[in-house]
Amino acid sequence: MNPMSITTSSAFWKSGDGVSDQFPAGLRVLVVDDDPTCLRILEEMLRICLYEVTKCSRAEVALKLLRDNKDGFDVVISDVHMPDMDGFKLLEHIGLEMDLPVISK
């Protein structure tokens, strides 16, 4: 085994080689979307990847969850068009207040 390799429960990362086709099990994902169908589909897809999924239908509630659980999530997947707060505004708050990657859809 290469001494520069790191093995996790479901992902194999090699220094300089990039990432394998395995998903990192246990990734804590917050999904934010006002469309309940999109929320359900994303939740199902992410759980297949063995991610821990928290879903939220309002950006303001998602922001409160993030503020109350500063180390509780690894990534946020957010819709851009939501009635209570624009997804880009949510991204701005997350960027200013915490070091957390956001995927906008």
Automatic annotation (TrEMBL):
The modification 4-aspartylphosphate is found at D79. It holds the Pfam family Response_reg. Residues 28-105 form the Response regulatory domain. Keywords: Phosphoprotein, Transcription, Transcription regulation, Two-component regulatory system. InterPro entries: ARR-like (IPR045279), CheY-like_superfamily (IPR011006), Sig_transdc_resp-reg_receiver (IPR001789). This is Response regulatory domain-containing protein. It comes from Rehmannia glutinosa.
